[in-house]
Design brief:
heterodimer; A: 115 residues; mainly beta; seven-stranded mixed β-sheet; four-stranded antiparallel β-sheet; 11 strands; B: 113 residues; six-stranded mixed β-sheet; 0% helix; 58% strand; globular
């Protein structure tokens, strides 16, 4: 049973370009969460999605960031017109349900570098 | 509001000696508490979790943590450190009816030979 998969593992973009980060949850998991980790900090919640629905995007910046989890295929975190401050590690997690006692299983992360 | 404080940004111990990583939390509700470990350039692995059952929780790789409500603490311990334990450790809290995980800033564990 494969774990949470994220790709690419490393992504380099120039300022103003778009970044697309992909996340495939564990088999049987329909709940996906995205977190951002800035250097020397813990993770910060960004967004919570179920299939075809955004449940909570309270941690997402209001502009340039969007997320989706289509019926088929991986969840996508999209950052338009990237700036240097977007450089961070982005982690995706999945769980079988959305309750707080559920374990969230994390992928290896995508490290985004904006030049 | 919920918050997590990891009291030490770095902890250095000699191989074979005990490990103590400290964590205090603030929560208005009954919390679930987790410890995750992150090895360099790797993903996050769950070490253990507390969800209102036994207050002493045993995890993987010989780690355990004790939930102390009166002290609002959830410190992580291991009797004897191994070189492979060198990593960053995160204390995490979530609260009932809220799936969001609140993360501490992390503690880097350094193991001296």
């Amino acid at each position: 049973n494969a774990g949470v998969m994220q790709n690419p593992r490393h992504l380099v973009r120039r300022r103003g370009q778009e970044a697309r980060l992909r996340c495939s949850p564990m088999k049987g998991h329909s709940h996906v969460y995205w977190y951002r980790q800035l250097p020397e900090e813990g993770l910060k919640f960004m967004v919570y999605l179920q299939k075809e629905n955004i449940i909570d995007e309270s941690g997402m910046p209001k502009e340039r960031f969007s997320a989706e989890f289509p019926k088929e295929g991986p969840s996508i975190l999209r950052i338009q017109q990237v700036v240097r401050g977007d450089s961070a590690a982005y982690f995706c997690a999945s769980s079988p349900s959305g309750i707080s006692t559920d374990t969230q299983y994390f992928g290896p992360g995508t490290r985004l570098t904006v030049l | 509001a919920q918050s997590v404080t990891q009291l030490d940004s770095h902890v250095s111990v000699s191989e074979g000696t005990p490990v103590l990583l400290r964590c205090n939390y603030s929560s208005s509700y009954s919390p679930s508490l987790f410890w995750y470990v992150q090895h360099p350039n790797k993903g996050l692995q769950l070490l253990l979790k507390y969800t209102s059952a036994a207050t002493l929780v045993k995890g993987i790789n010989g780690f355990e943590a004790e939930f102390k409500k009166s002290e609002t603490s959830f410190h992580l311990t291991k009797p004897s450190a191994h070189m492979s334990d060198a990593a960053e450790y995160f204390c995490v809290v979530s609260v009932s009816s809220n799936y969001q995980l609140i993360w501490g800033a992390g503690t880097k564990l350094i193991i001296k030979p």
